[in-house]
Amino acid sequence: MKHYWSVALDDLKQPSIDTYKMWVFAGNPRQGILFDYMKDAKYKYKLAVRDAIYVYDNKFSDDL
């Protein structure tokens, strides 16, 4: 388990997985509504993970 992991990240991970599965089931279209949903969910998830890591790393720096 990652030290920076939270319930909020879990809440963003599942929609990312679900939209990816729908996108694959539709034949991996490179444009359209499913592609947009998949990319949006993936981007939100990746951004949240990156922010969580940044906050976790800086928490210890600020404490020192």
Task: Outline the fold blueprint.
Elements: H1 7-25, H2 33-63
Helix pairs in contact: 1-2
Give a short overview.
The protein is an all-alpha fold and 64 residues long.
Tally of separate helices = 2
Q: What is the ordering of alpha helices and beta strands?
A: HH
What ranges have pLDDT less than 50 throughout 5 or more consecutive residues? Answer: none
Q: What share of the residues lie within helices? A: over 70%
Shape: elongated
Q: How many individual β-strands?
A: 0
User: Which percent band covers the strand fraction?
Assistant: under 5%
Q: How many separate structural domains?
A: 1
Rg for CA atoms: 15 Å
Written overview of the protein:
The protein has about 60 residues and is mostly helical. The protein has one domain (about 5-64). About 80% of the residues lie in helices and about 0% in strands. The protein is built from two helices and no strands. It has helices spanning about 5-25, 35-64. Helix 1 runs antiparallel to helix 2 (about 35-64). The longest helix has about 30 residues, at about 35-64. The radius of gyration is 15 Å and the shape is elongated. The model has no long low-confidence stretch (mean pLDDT about 90).
